[in-house]
Amino acid sequence: MNAMKAPVNLMEKITALCKRRGFIFQSSEIYGGLNGFWDYGPAGAQLKRNIRDQWWQRYVRNGHISPSGDHFDIVGLDASIIMHPDVWKASGHTESFSDPLVDCRKCKQRFRADQLPDTKCPSGGDHEFTEPRDFNLMFQTFIGPVKDDASIAFLRPETAQAIFVQFQNVLTVSRTKVPFGIAQIGKAFRNEINPRNYTFRSREFEQMEIEFFIKPGSDESWHEYWLKDRMDWYKSIGLSPRKLNLEKHEDSELAHYASACSDIIYRFPFGDQELEGIAARGNFDLCQHANATGKIPQYFDPDTGERFYPHVIEPSAGVDRIALALLTDAYHEETITDSKGKTEIRTVMRFHPAIAPVTVAVFPLLRNRPELVTKAYDIFETLRHRFIVQWDDRGNIGKRYRYQDELGTPWCVTIDFDTIGQGEPSLKDTVTLRDRDTMNQERVSVENLTDIIQERLLQPFTP
Ligand code: GAP
Fold first, then answer.
1. d(Cα 8, Cα 20) in Å, to the nearest integer?
2. To 10 degrees, the CA torsion angle through 398, 402, 407, 409?
3. CA dihedral 69, 75, 81, 83 (to 10 degrees)
4. Using a 6 Å cutoff on CB, does residue 276 contact ligand 1?
């Protein structure tokens, strides 16, 4: 038998669980992996989808009422990843989307000059670094069969620019007026010099960005609005409030066109790190694209008759970082004692039920008893129209509970002989409903099962 290396710290344990339960795999693992790229397995893909759905539902699907009581819209966009290369010239990315890079002359490794390692050089002694030089983070590719300067294009390093580039089209079709937002979820690519901290800094990742267009002069109050709203959203998906923080950028750290920027910070096991940046970016991007193309006229305000280029507030979040924060927040180990006095460590992922990759697991007590399986299928069929449901008929019930605990499934339903009227007569048409967090098991009627789960799904969640 292979001896497994004992996980030595929390991140190693979480990484091991993510692999074991299908949240995250190394990209191209069987070819040795690819640094800075990750694949999400069945549980991770659903976790990310739930994050995106929570965000889209809150911001795009539902209308909004502003603090002053007016209605405003946020509409969706799904733009291409490769855009005209001139977009990145106008936005400033071609010129300055770079990190300072240094090489070690001895071991030939490359590092970000602002994130130098505190370890010794593998070739012996201290590293010998070159002077820093700018390294552009955009991934380059070629469009069409000819690889020359005229066919160079870039994988987008952020989803935001497409929103500015399509501003006029979206405004024309949306019957909306300032203030309003355009939201987009999609992949972004950055050729990070040192990907690190698991999925935290990757070379391919997903962003959820809103450009919220406002009247110039209302920047401060709308920035405050978005800081509060976004913090509330993070709490609503179950992140521990005590691990969330806002960090304001100093004026000296702001880009020349920005009037304010704050980051939403989460306390990861590897330190306090950014989940999202919320910037008041003025009208820099819109004006850049207007100047470069001559195709974005000033906005006409139907209420005041003024013409202007709207300013923006930009809440810009990373789906992968949110997933990682949820995974680290949810991870719990606890010592439990069974009825015979035996103790064991239970690993349980305490996700918010709306975020958990599986909402309900359905277990027929025995897989080789058709009468149990048939009844369990009936229940499975009813539940799967409302919830994310998983069928599990392998191993004993205790093992199935442990498996679902590691997936973070809030409820498990067991169909046994009592359910089908072959046991205690008073328990006919009831099932065992087991709660992930309390481990309580209760008998509930099959008839009420969907409503009970639905009601619990809506109850306040304490991480
Ligand atoms: N449009 C603004 C913008 O892109 P950013 O602070 O560079 O701002 C926004 O990125 C968010 O995207 C970050 O807060 C983070 O969640 C995510 N992100 C950025 N670089 C990332 C990377 N290399 N790996 C994973 N997520 C990243």
1. 16
2. 50
3. -90
4. yes
Judge contact between 358 and 340, C-beta under 8 A.
no
**Which of 261, 169, 176 shows the shortest CA–CA distance to 213?**
176
**Would you tell me how many other CB atoms lie within 10 Å of the CB of residue 135?**
17
For 15-82+157-326, CATH number?
3.30.930.10
Homologous superfamily of 358-457: Anticodon-binding domain (3.40.50.800)
Residue 277 near ligand 1, beta carbon < 6 Å: yes
The residue extents of the domains of the chain are: 15-82+157-326, 358-457
Radius of gyration for the alpha carbons in the chain, expressed in angstroms and rounded = 26
Q: Is 316 in the pocket of ligand 1 (CB under 6 A)?
A: yes
- pLDDT tens string for the chain (463 positions)? 334 444 459 999 999 999 999 999 999 999 999 999 999 999 999 999 999 999 999 999 988 888 888 889 999 999 999 999 999 999 999 998 988 999 899 898 889 998 888 889 998 999 999 999 899 999 999 999 999 999 999 999 999 999 999 999 999 999 899 999 999 999 999 999 999 999 999 999 999 999 999 999 999 999 999 999 999 999 999 999 999 999 999 999 998 889 999 999 999 999 999 999 999 999 999 999 999 999 999 999 999 999 999 999 999 999 999 999 999 999 999 999 988 899 999 999 999 999 999 999 999 999 999 999 999 999 999 999 999 999 999 999 999 999 999 999 999 999 999 999 999 999 999 999 999 999 999 999 999 999 999 999 999 998 8
- Ligand 1 atom closest to the Cα of residue 209 is 1
